[in-house]
Write a structure and sequence with these properties.
By secondary structure, this protein is of the alpha+beta class. 35% of the residues lie in helices and 13% in strands. The protein has two domains: 23-137, Beta-grasp domain (Ubiquitin-like (UB roll)); 140-283, Orthogonal Bundle (Fumarate Reductase Iron-sulfur Protein, Chain B, domain 2). It has helices at 23-35, 69-79, 114-117, 141-149, 172-176, 189-193, 195-199, 206-216, 224-231, 245-249, 256-277, and strands at 37-45, 55-63, 99-102, 105-108, 121-125, 132-134, 137-138.
Length: 284
Amino acid sequence: MTKDGALPKGFERPTVSVSPNDSGVQAKYEEVKSSSKTITLRISKFNPEKDLRTAFHAFTVPYQRWTTVLDAILEVKSHQDHSIGVRYSCRQATCGSCGMIINGKPRLACFTKISELDSDVVTVEPMNNFPLIRDLAVGFERMFSTHKRIKPYVIREDSETNPGTKEFLQSPEDVEKYIQFASCIKCGLCNSACPTMTTDSTFIGPQGLAQAYRYVADNRDQGKDERLRIIDEPHGIWRCHFAGSCSQVCPKGVDPAMGIQLLLRIQKIIILFCVDLGCCLLDC
């Protein structure tokens, strides 16, 4: 920069004229749209308060190699239909807010790239097995209630905060037993894919059962018997048909189906001891 504040020759910034209205922004959008690849985005639209049936609205959306389905939905919401109801937050597959059915499979919209779908038509619908709020947004009350019911925290009579109590140390082997199941982000995709939840509205579900195993397998926890009582019911672990759909759609590799099978093995061992001892170990 020279003494008078001007930039050296060759480094001058081009002058850009700014329109007082949004016509320039729209023109830029049309320019990008015409120079990019496009897909047809079909969005399920339904408002229970005023609509009689679900309708699919089709939109032409430009995309790049890195464009996600959530990006495309928000593009439509910004430029073509402001009324679209969709839930999202972090946009990096951490909060679990943007779960939906994408081309027939439960996925996170922010974690699904359009270029990886290998289709010129992308259809998005709300998740199955959840009450519909509007369009792509569903209610999580039932799942959160079930999650709370299995007591998703370490239960102990003592505490690390008590005077004279040391930190509860664990070996890498101890952590390995449950760490996979601690990655759950409560997105609900596993519950959406579960065929049992479709036919049984009182089924605890793969998300809740997987989290039950996460704490049963944690050697710091002393609430194992209490949790096993909660899930040992006709609509608990015994209701799972082991379709494995929940594990196929989990974006974090939690594998709820395996957690449920490990819980079943624990319960079956308890039953065998009960037969031999003539009592119930959970009541002893």
